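Private note to self, pasted from the team thread so I don't lose it. Backbone tokens:
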């Protein structure tokens, strides 16, 4: 890699650190600011932050690679994600923003569960905290691995050096700058991803000579690659589209909704977020298709389809621009790592330390513990990332389903059903998590194929968790009047006032 590319990447790192310093100076005075930015997040920042932390390297590596390999039939996952993200904005965002403040200013998802149901047993907080801390440590590790491999492939650095470079910059701005720094860096990273996913497929498309040449080259490889339904079974289609269900239960995404400054800003965030997502999704799919046409026309097929974005960045652009485009991949990786670190840190601080270790901790002490937690989780993730062949990568690939099934139905029902109970919520969470794990790891197969080969595990996990939550709640004692009245007040605020203030009472 030539020096200009390194200059671009260095400039990107400096920008991230500068934003971290800005967050440190402006929004880390107390734990509410450190974890949620004081609930003052601009809708554009919230929207792009949610999108960037959601997509990770999948947007620039995984999706283009899948389309490169199997054609448009792989894009059904993207369709499911777009639909899921839209309904997440529509159904979850407004009520969660209000409910978490009405519920005694809940700062984390486990905190919200406990306060929503007045759970004095703390079982909801404990179980959901364990799920978040374990899965996000593994999830973070996968991002660190991706960063290490990017530096190794693109810049010829040692894999271990890449690990520490990726983790070091992310940890620095997350540890010092907190939620505000993470959100602003995500916003910048989302902008970089947006530009890159327009620029790369467009330049490759022009280089090839337009639509006719692109389609001709793809058809020479396989005529079925341009068919949406080629080789897609009914269960396969359901599995792909059902990825959208996962959005309702992803803590690192929905926490952005809790931080947006007003209820009226949620609609603005939805417009911005969905516009960003549709453009980048189309760009990622186009990168895979146009990339296949380009490698076919030039006679240079790839051994690893997931590197098609990297390949086009290197052969079509000046090294200075290449550095910017590679920064887009790093941005996708780092935005997710920082979000996961912060959610894990928040859970360790608010749901473990403050709840079980030191209830009288001062705000300054809690911010310090939050920073220590960021460091602890990152060190654990780096340690796990040293083993490239570790089975954690397989587990992380199923984390989306795990979070979606364990938390998704419970969050939806807790926001919309006034008669939902604590026991129903706990039973639903356990059912969702256990179903996903059994679907993946149970020694059951059909014609020698595991269950996941036929149906994505989020489908049975989400469905059973939803049904279990409803059934147990109906069989349980009716919630107290204080719980139902608080729920009704949230509904009234949604249907009445358009601007959220900070004057709610529990």
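Design output:
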């Amino acid at each position: 890699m030539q020096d200009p590319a390194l200059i671009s990447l260095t400039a990107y790192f400096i920008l991230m650190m500068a934003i971290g310093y800005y967050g440190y100076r402006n929004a880390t005075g107390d734990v509410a600011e450190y974890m949620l930015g004081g609930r003052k997040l601009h809708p554009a920042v919230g929207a792009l932050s949610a999108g960037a932390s959601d997509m990770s390297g999948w947007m620039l590596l995984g999706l283009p690679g899948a389309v490169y390999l199997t054609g448009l039939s792989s894009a059904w996952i993207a369709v499911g994600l777009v639909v899921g993200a839209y309904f997440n904005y529509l159904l979850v965002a407004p009520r969660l923003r209000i409910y978490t403040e009405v519920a005694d200013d809940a700062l984390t998802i486990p905190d919200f569960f406990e306060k929503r149901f007045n759970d004095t047993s703390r079982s909801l907080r404990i179980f959901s905290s364990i799920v978040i801390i374990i899965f996000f440590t593994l999830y973070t590790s996968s991002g660190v691995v991706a960063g290490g491999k990017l530096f190794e492939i693109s810049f010829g650095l040692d894999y271990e050096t890449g690990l520490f470079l990726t983790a070091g910059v992310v940890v620095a701005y997350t540890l010092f700058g907190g939620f505000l720094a993470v959100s602003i860096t995500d916003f910048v990273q989302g902008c970089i991803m947006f530009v890159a996913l327009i620029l790369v497929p467009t330049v490759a498309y022009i280089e090839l000579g337009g639509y006719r040449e692109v389609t001709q080259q793809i058809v020479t490889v396989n005529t079925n690659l341009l068919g949406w339904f080629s080789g897609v079974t009914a269960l396969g289609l359901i599995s792909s589209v059902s990825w959208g269900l996962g959005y309702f239960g992803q803590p690192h995404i929905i926490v952005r909704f809790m931080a947006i400054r007003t209820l009226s800003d949620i609609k603005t965030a939805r417009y911005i977020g969905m516009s960003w997502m549709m453009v980048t999704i189309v760009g990622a799919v186009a990168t895979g298709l146009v990339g296949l046409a380009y490698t076919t026309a030039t006679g240079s097929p790839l051994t690893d389809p997931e590197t098609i974005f990297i390949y086009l960045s290197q052969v079509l652009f000046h090294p200075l621009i290449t550095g910017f485009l590679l920064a887009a991949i790093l941005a996708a990786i780092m935005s997710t790592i920082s979000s996961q670190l912060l959610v894990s840190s928040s859970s360790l601080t608010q749901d473990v330390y403050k709840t079980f270790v030191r209830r009288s901790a001062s705000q300054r002490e809690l911010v310090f513990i939050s920073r220590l937690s960021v460091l602890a989780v990152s060190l654990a993730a780096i340690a796990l990332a040293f083993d490239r062949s570790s089975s954690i990568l397989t587990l992380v690939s199923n984390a989306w389903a795990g979070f979606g099934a364990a938390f998704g139905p419970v969050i939806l029902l807790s926001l919309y059903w006034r008669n939902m109970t604590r026991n129903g919520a706990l039973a639903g969470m356990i059912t969702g998590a256990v179903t996903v794990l059994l679907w993946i790891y149970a020694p059951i197969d059909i014609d020698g194929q595991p269950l996941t080969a036929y149906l994505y595990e989020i489908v049975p996990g989400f469905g059973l968790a939803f049904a279990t939550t409803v059934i147990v709640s109906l069989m349980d004692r009716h919630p107290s009047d204080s719980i139902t009245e608080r729920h009704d007040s949230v509904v009234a605020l949604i249907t009445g006032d358009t601007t959220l203030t900070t004057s709610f009472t529990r």
